[in-house]
Structure formats: structure tokens, C-alpha cells
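DATA SHEET
Item: assembly model
Revision: 1
Owner: S.N.
Input lines:
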Amino acid sequence: MVTFGIKNLDIWFGAAQALKQVNISIESNEILSIIGPSNSGKTTFLRMLNRLNDLSSNCKMAGEVRFGQEDLIKIDVELLRKRVGMVFALPLPLPLSIFDNVAFGVRMHGERDRKILENRVEEALKQSYLWEEVKDRLDVSAFKLSGGQQQRLCIARTLAVEPEVILFDEPCSGLDPISTAKVEEAMLKLKKKYTIVLVTNNVKQAARVGDRTAFFLSGELIELDKTDKIFTAPQDKRTDDYITGAFG
Amino acid sequence: MRKLKESIIEKLILLCGLASVFFVVLIFLFLLKEGLAVFKTISLKDFILGKSWYPISEPAQLGILPLIMGSFLVTIGAAIISIPIGVGCAIYIAEIAPLRLKEILKVGIELLAAIPSVVLGFIGMVTIVPLVKSIFHLPTGLTAISGSIMLAFMAMPTIVSIAEDALYSVPKIYKEGAFALGATHWQTIYRVVLPAASSGIVAAVMLGIGRVIGETMAVMMITGNAAVMPNSILAPVRTLTATIAAEMGEAVVGSEHYFALFGIGIVLFIISFCINVTADLFLHRNK
């Protein structure tokens, strides 16, 4: 099944074109990794999927994007962002307790019942592999957690609103290898239930967790294929150069 | 030679830095010296809580409670009017207004701050005062509420510009985090931006109130200048500041009256000092 069908997508910020004629379809329950040097348009692509680009007033978009059967720009934007969750590069806990952080989005969508909230929080923390570490101190401030724990807390916060897709924007760029491994482990488990799009600067991470990998350069999609294929026999020389570290 | 020049410039700048502190200390000492003399003839309790202010009757009655109440009523009224409008305006400018409108609004706010208070007082006298009189069917429109309305205009620029700064400096990633969870614009403002900027907003409010308490000219012109215990916000009052301004010229130097006015000065100083320190604490809490 196709979650996102993207045809001839162009995106501009003012006069600068960030994405040029991108065609991708994102399958359900896969992890699609997106790699590429900075300014290649990979984050713009990711933020297009939950229409976070709309926040920049000078952003223009052309082409066709379908989310399931629906036209992406016709979906109610708050509902879309509930269905397409996002985890950012910096762990971004709010100055609230662990519980309130995870329950934040759920509450915002109108849930008041304490029992339901508790269930959702527990469920989300379990899925992000944080439950065992925090279950006895849910009322402690989220700032007391380590960086890696905070990032998994943010994943839990996204999961708690029960999305269909999760976008990861360089989720491990500030984490140590052990925390990174935990986040990756969580991602691999999550793909059973969710579709995952992962933007990463870490080529090895793409190789470890991605089912398919896309390589972006200067706003163009250069190559998209099964991850093993991209890393063993890339079709385009530029892809080969990038993953072997010749530039970027 | 260059070393010498450096050190001379350094010393000069140091001197400038110390000057402000030096003047504050000097002013404070002078205020204390003149003001504390009033307590030779009247106890602190009778001064603060005394209900009659008849400084030139024989014997002089120097209770400043009516003046404190006057300042209090005018300030509370101004705060009730200016805080919601000011904070609302700041939210609109920082979060909602399109770029063009934002620039226009900011210039407007700055202009409002630039109007001399005596001009505002004068305008209030010919507009607000008759309006209040006819709306509430009062014998006179020179009341505490007229002063409150007028002072709300003076507090607003301070509140708006500092609160807007605080709102604007909330990191963009916080907002994006909330949007990404499916929050609406208002939910993001209400649940993320406002709490994150809360200390700056409190500081803005405190500084606005500080401006109101210290204001003299406009208040003197439109609050009726009656140094009696006010029984409502619709009665004429006289504030601490207006009392000093109105009576200092007539008070005989060295008389009880003269010292009492300095005593009022000390009370004012303490009030605005407390407000400014509170504002400062909030302003620097998260930094």
C-alpha cells in the first residue's frame, strides 16, 4: 500500500527553489531513509509531508502529493499533523513533568479522561522503550532526563496522539552511540505499526535501519532504491561518491 | 604610550559607570535625611495609616492613607484596563499580525510612548472627564477612574513592547514542536508560547505598573486632587505623586509639612523599588 504518492513536486522559498521535480512513493510500514548533504532539500521534503513548511510565509509548492487517497493540501492541517507525527533533531521536552509531556498532544486534541490518558502515556512510553526507565517517576520534570531519554520522550509524545506516519528529522544528531542504538531499535519495532520517514546525516544509520534509501542532492532526487542496493551497487556516480565519503 | 591611553580611557569609563550608582545613593540619602525627620512628630503607624491629610491645619494632620488609597485605586484600575489590552496587543504583534501590519503597529505603539504625559492629561481632561461624568451621572468627572483610563494608555507601550520581545524570543522550535503534534495556532500560543514567555510578560506588566505609580502630571490634572479617603473608583482622589507636586511649592522649608512630603517620597521610592526588583527578577529568571 502507498502512504504518500508524490508527483512532480517543486518547492520554493521566495526565489530559491528547494526541491525540483521530485517523484517518490512512500510505502506503508517501511522505513524510508533520506540522505544527502546539507541544503539538498531533504528536510524541506520531510516538512512538506506534515505541511510544516506552511509556517514559512514565502514557501510555495507545486505538483501533486497524495496522502492515502486524499490530496495533501486539502486535508485539515491540524488533523494531518495528528496523523503524520514528527520527531525533531533536538530533543524538545516542554517544561512539564514526564507524564504531562507525553499527554500534551493527546490533551490538545481534547482528551480529558484520566484513565485514557494514563493508558495512552504508558502505551506510548513502552513503544519508545522509555517505560522501564521512567515508570516510577512520571511526575518528575522532563528536564531531569538524559539527552537520549529526552529524545525517546519526544518519540513517545508523538506516538501518544496515535499517528499513522512518523517523520524523523535527524533524530540522533545530538546523541551518543548507545542512545542512538536505542532510538534505532525503537524505530525498527515501530515500523510494524507505522510508516517511517527518516532524514539523517549519518549514512551508516540509513544503512542500518532503512528499508529503502533516497539520495537527495541540490533539491533533486538522484536515486531511490532498496537500501542494500544503494549501499552496494549505486546506479549514479554521485550517490557512490556521497556514501563513500568523497564529498558531503 | 598606548598602554597609558588605554588605562586612562578605562578609568574614565569606570567613572561614568560609577556615577549613576553614586547619584542614586546620594538621592536616596538626601531623601532619607529629609523624610525621616517627619517621624520626630508622628509615628510611622499614624503616618501610613492616618486617615486625614490636613498638613497646614493647626495641629497638622499627616496621615497619608487617603493618598496611598488614591494611588492604589488609580493603579489597580489602570492595570485592569492595560494588562489585557497590552498583552493581547503583544500576542497579536508577535504571533499573528502579517509583517506589514506588524511594522505599522510597532510604530504606533512607539508614538504612543512618545506623547508627553501632560499632553495626554490635557486630552483626557477634555475627553474622558466629561465622558465619565455623563456616563455615571456624577457631579464631577475628575475621578479615580478617569485617571485609570488615562494611565492605562501610558502603561500600554511599556507592556506591549516588553511583552512582545518576550513572546518573540520564544525559540521557534518550541512552536514547531506544538504544531507538529497537531496543535492549532491558538493552542500553540496558549499552551506553549505564553507559558514559555510568562516571566517576560510578568516583567512587562510590572514595569507598566511602575510607570503608572510614578506618573504625576496627567494624574494631577484629571483625578480631582481631593486628599480624602475615596469611597469608590468614581470619587475624586489624589495620588502620592500628585500630592508632592502640588504642595511642595507651598510647604515652608523645614516645616512638618515639608518633611512629610519627603516621607511620601520615601514611600514612593520603596514601592517603585519593589516593583522594579520584582520585574528584574522575572526578567532574568530564565537566563
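QC remark: The beta strands of chain B are 53-54, 61-62.
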